[in-house]
Write a structure and sequence with these properties.
Length: 306
């Protein structure tokens, strides 16, 4: 047995395959250092894209998320020309991130390369579940940011507003709340979006993104029982009956969910033309009061009852 020790492979285990002696000890030794079975990964892959006007730090944010300098970073706006899909896992959740070139203001696409970048960015947005709208915390919200936000609402994507370059802001304990209120005032049509403050350059608070992404995606996929929806419908009508509009008064019969990503609903009515846009907004607001739908848009379709 000394010859076996001389191999320097640890303690030898004696077995007899004919009589089955020592096989159990051998198996115990084989599996003792094997890792325990890991829990299954989440089945859904959350696809999110990083959008914003040029030079707000989208590529730096991608690098911070991936912890890898695989996207060119430059102070020159529009450096990143292509959309790059990258799969990764974080806290047992699978993600695909699509980094995009900066989206220029509508009507100001001069160069073919810029036009190509915009088209790729919009394609990335179309293929994503969640959009991270990056704005420059130092410059604040400008008109171009609102144009980019308009694309997100056009595609009915879940959204998170990301305030980058937060390290450059002089702040106290109230700064973040004041800044968030200011952003919500600028993006009134995205008042359901969560706001995350971070510095991509210094990888500060980037970890705050993932709970926000997960929550926005979960709400983006929300499903509701038909009975719950119709209880809410009756409560809304009782609390605020429709007014006469287009020489008629809307009456609502029934509500049902017809889709997710985003949550989409059909409300059957005597005549969709009698529904004022302000009443649809009222219904959207009541939805959000009753259910946590942070991060996701809603679709409400009024259909004439046959």
């Amino acid at each position: 047995i000394y010859e076996f020790y001389s191999l320097g492979l640890g303690d030898p285990i004696g077995i007899s395959t004919h009589h089955g002696i020592g096989i159990g000890d051998l198996l115990d030794e084989v599996i003792k250092d094997m890792p325990e079975k890991e829990e299954d990964l989440a089945t859904d892959t959350i696809r999110f894209c990083i959008v914003g006007r040029p030079n707000v730090g989208k590529s730096s944010l991608t690098n911070a998320i991936l912890e890898d300098n695989r996207v060119i970073v430059s102070d020159i706006g529009g450096t990143t020309r292509d959309s790059i899909d990258t799969d990764f896992v974080k806290n047992r959740q699978k993600y695909t991130v699509v980094d995009t070139a900066g989206i220029k203001k509508r009507g100001r696409i001069y160069e073919d390369t810029d036009k190509y970048s915009v088209l790729r960015a919009l394609e990335a947005l179309e293929r994503s579940d969640v959009a991270l709208l990056v704005i420059d915390g130092e410059e604040g919200v400008i008109l171009q940011d609102k144009h980019v936000a308009g694309y997100i609402t056009d595609y009915f994507k879940a959204v998170i507003i990301v305030v980058n370059k937060w390290d450059k802001i002089e702040k106290d304990s109230k700064t973040m709340k004041k800044y968030e209120d200011k952003i919500k005032a600028e993006f009134q049509f995205l008042d359901y979006a969560e706001v995350v403050f971070l510095s991509a350059k210094y990888n500060d608070r980037v970890d705050k993104l993932f709970p926000a992404i997960n929550k926005a995606y979960e709400n983006f996929c929300s499903e509701f029982k038909t009975s719950t929806l119709n209880e809410l419908l009756q409560d809304m009508i009782y609390a605020n009956p429709p007014k006469i509009f287009n020489q008629g008064k809307a009456s609502f019969n029934y509500m049902t969910q017809v889709g997710i990503k985003p949550p989409s609903f059909v409300i059957f009515t005597n005549n969709p033309d009698f529904v004022h846009f302000s009443y649809e907004r009222y219904m959207q607001n009541e939805f959000r009061k009753n259910f946590d739908l942070t991060g996701t848009p809603l679709k409400i379709i009024f259909r004439k009852k046959e």
